[in-house]
Amino acid sequence: MKILKLNDQVSIKRSVDNGTEEQRAIVKGVIETVRQNGDQALIEYTEKFDGISLDDFAVTQAEIEEAYGQVDEEILEIIKEAADNIKSFHEKQLRPSWMTTEENGTVLGQKITPLDSVGLYVPGGTAAYPSSVLMNVIPAKVAGVKRIVITSPPDKKTGKLPPAVLAAAHIAGAEEIYKVGGAQAIAALAYGTETVAPVDKITGPGNIFVALAKREVFGDVDIDMIAGPSEIAILADETAQPDEVAADLLSQAEHDPMASTVLVTPSATLAEAVSAEVKRQLALLPRREIAAQSIENYGAIYVTESMDEAIETVNNLAPEHLEILTENPMELLGQIRHAGAIFLGRFSPEPVGDYFAGPNHVLPTNGTARFSSPLNVEDFQKKSSILLYSEKALKSNGEKIAAFARLEGLEAHARSIETRLRK
Ligand SMILES: NC(=O)c1ccc[n+]([C@@H]2O[C@H](COP(=O)([O-])OP(=O)(O)OC[C@H]3O[C@@H](n4cnc5c(N)ncnc54)[C@H](O)[C@@H]3O)[C@@H](O)[C@H]2O)c1
Ligand SMILES: N[C@H](CO)Cc1c[nH]c[nH+]1
Ligand SMILES: [Zn+2]
C-alpha cells in the first residue's frame, strides 16, 4: 500500500460516472419503451438483458415461502436479530408532527406524513445484499410507508431471485416484489405498467444503467442518492493493531475495484506495519483481485506531522465510513465534522455497522458527507407546514403583509389580505 507524506490535495473523490453517450441513449430508449409498452417491454428487456423469459415477473407468495425454506435457520435468526436492531435504531429517528399556539390565537406547525409508496432496487449478481434490503425497507416501514416494492433482476441461470434476498424482504415486511432489473425496472417504478403501480420514491444502488435511469426519472419521482463505490478512512495512532487496521481496510476494498481505503496516522511505524499486513492478508482473500485493484488505485496511507493534522485530513476526505483507532477515540469525536458513519475503537470495526448494530449502511460517498446524511426515516417522509391566523392576528399584521406584497409588485396578494381587514 502506498505510504505518502501528507499534501493538502488529499481526496478520495472520484469523478461521478455519467456513463457514455451510448449508455445514456440506451437508458432513454428503455424508459420511453416501458412508458409506451408497459409489461410487454419489461418481459422483452428481461429476455434481452438477463436471458430469462418470464410470462409473469411478480414474485409469488409460494416463491417467497420456498426461498425462506432454503435459507439456513441460524442465518434466518441472525437476519431477524439484525432487523430488530435496525428497527429500534430507526425508531429513535421518528419525530412527531408539532403545533404551537400563540396568545393572539395564531397556530403554526409542521405535519409529518409518510410517503405513500417507495420502490427499492436490489442489484443483481454478487451485489444482491440481503443486508441492504433490511437497510432500505426497515426505515421506510418505520416511517409509515404503506406500499414498499422491490425490484431486482432474475438470476441468469435460475430465473429466480436469491433466496436470502427474498427472506430478508419477508423479514423486513416487503411482499410486493418483481423480477425485473436495470433501467426498465426504474422506469416501471417511476411511471407504472399494467402490473406495477408507480411509486413516489426510488432507493437502492445498481450498475450504470440503473444509476442513469434514476437520474433520468428524478423530478417525476424522488430518488435517494447515486451511491458511489464504498469508502473507508481509518484515523489511528501508534496504539492501533496493524493486523486489525489492515483487515478493516480490506473489508471495504473487497466490495469494488474502485472502493477507496485510506489510513491517516501520525505514526510512521504503524504505517509501515499496516502496509506489510495489507499485502499479507490480501493474498488470502477470495475476492483478492477486486481488493487488489482497489488498494492499488484508491488505497493510500498518509503519514501526518500530528494528530491534529490527521483529523483535519479526515475532515477534508469526508469519508463514507470513518474508524477511529486511537487510545481514546471518544475524545476525538467532537473534532470530526464530516463522515457518513463514525466507528469508535477496536471493537467497532466497520462490518458491525454493515450488518448488525442498527445504524443505516446506506451512507454518503464521494465527499458528500460534507452536506448529506445516512439513509434515514426522514427520507421516507415529507413535511407540510400548518398555518392558522386568528382574526386578531391578521388584523394586527395585515398592513405589514400587504406592504410587503406591494414591494414585490403583487397587488392581488395585498388585496387578498386587505379584503379581510375591512370586514
Ligand atoms: N454503492 C453501493 O452501495 C452498491 C451496493 C451494491 C451494488 N452496487 C453496484 O451494483 C451493481 C451491480 O451490477 P449488476 O450489473 O450485477 O446488477 P444490476 O442489477 O445493477 O444491473 C443488472 C441489469 O442491468 C441491465 N443491463 C446490463 N447490461 C445492459 C446493457 N448492455 N444495456 C442495457 N441494460 C443492461 C439489465 O437490465 C440487467 O438486468 C455494481 O455496479 C455495483 O457496484 C453498489
Ligand atoms: N459497506 C457497504 C456500504 O458501503 C454495505 C455492505 C453491504 N454488505 C456488506 N457491506
Ligand atoms: Zn461493506
Automatic annotation (TrEMBL):
Keywords from the UniProt entry: Amino-acid biosynthesis, Histidine biosynthesis, Metal-binding, NAD, Oxidoreductase, Zinc
Gene3D superfamilies associated with the record: 1.20.5.1300, Nitrogenase molybdenum iron protein domain
Similarity section: Belongs to the histidinol dehydrogenase family.
Named cofactor requirement(s): Zn(2+)
Record: residues binding Zn(2+): 252, 255, 354, 413
Record's protein name: Histidinol dehydrogenase
GO cellular component labels: cytosol
PANTHER family xref list: HISTIDINE BIOSYNTHESIS TRIFUNCTIONAL PROTEIN, HISTIDINOL DEHYDROGENASE HDH
Active-site residue numbers: 320-321
GO biological process, one term: L-histidine biosynthetic process
EC number, UniProt record: 1.1.1.23
